[in-house]
Amino acid sequence: SSFLINCPSLLALYFAIFFIIFFCYVFLSLIVFFFFFQAEDGIRDAQESRGLGDVYKRQGINAEYGGPQIYKMPLYPSIAVSDAFNAAAHLAASHIALTARPDQPAWLGFGLVALASGIGTLRFGVSESQFAQANESLANLCAFLGLPLVGVSFARMHGLLVLSTQDLVAFCVAGAALTAAASSLKPDQEELAKILLNVAGFILPVGLYGYARQNWMLVGAVALFAVAGVVVKPERERRILGVRREDIFHYLIGTASYGMALGMK
């Protein structure tokens, strides 16, 4: 029907409107943060996270009243900037994918990563406590649904999969359910599940498509994404040449996804 034909364009318009408002808010928030509060990014290096709960809040004892006291978690300006770059790169990738291949769901996969990274910008640049849970949940959804949607798109273009619109809807529902189910796994088991799913459902389909068509830019882009995930890793308190690994990770995957979207033309 005409509604189904125009649905991707309408969703893209909604995404664009949301991100225009969103980035204006983030930009103004970061200006206030940098110039008025002047938080120093280096003072948290000695504070190691002791698990996911420790990321959200630290609880201390009020010496005077003997009651619990919640301390405001420090922010990470450099990660906020790299996440903003990652969000912008994936938003651009989503637009390119929608323009080049509106019949494929890759644009939605890139859009989910853009949304997660945008919330990450708020988390690390505005308020850790308010946006950490949303950022973590969206990041997991990207791993179990967003990136596989990109892989499915390349598999369909390569002729490896034949999926109808109904099949894609079922795939999205299954991805969301898998995201919820994975939250009950131990951290190392969840990480292993993400790696196996993204190698089989994302890295290989994109790489095979690029190799079959001698599209070396596409092959290089997916290889860059793999290096970012396996070699660099989003480790917050470790650095390479003085730069946080998590920042390098964001810049690499943003660049890689933009290259993959260009490979869909």
Explain this structure to me?
- The protein is mainly alpha-helical and 265 residues long.
- Helix content is 73%, strand content 5%.
- The chain has nine helices and four strands, in the order ααββααααααββα.
- The protein has a two-stranded antiparallel sheet with strand order 1-2. A two-stranded antiparallel sheet has the order 3-4.
- A hairpin with a 6-residue loop joins strand 1 and strand 2.
- Helix 1 packs parallel to helix 4 and helix 3 runs antiparallel to helix 4.
- The protein is globular, with a radius of gyration of 20 Å.
- The chain starts with a helix and ends with a helix.
- The N terminus is likely disordered.
Notable traits:
two-stranded antiparallel ribbon; 265 residues; disordered N terminus
Quick description:
By secondary structure, the chain is mainly alpha-helical.
Largest sheet: 2 strands, antiparallel
Mean pLDDT, to the nearest integer, reads: 81
**Per DSSP, what share of the residues sits in E-state strands of 2 or more residues?**
under 5%
Order of helices and strands: HHEEHHHHHHEEH
Tally the beta strands. 4
Q: What structural class results from the helix and strand content?
A: mainly alpha
Instruction: Give the oligomeric state of the chains in this entry, treating copies of one chain as homo and distinct chains as hetero.
Output: single chain
Give the % helix: over 70%
First-residue to last-residue Cα separation:
25 Å
User: Which stretches are poorly predicted, pLDDT < 50 over at least 5 residues?
Assistant: 1-7, 32-71
The Rg value, from CA coordinates, equals 20 Å
Given the C-alpha coordinates, what overall shape results? globular
Strand order of the largest sheet: 1-2
Helix tally equals: 9
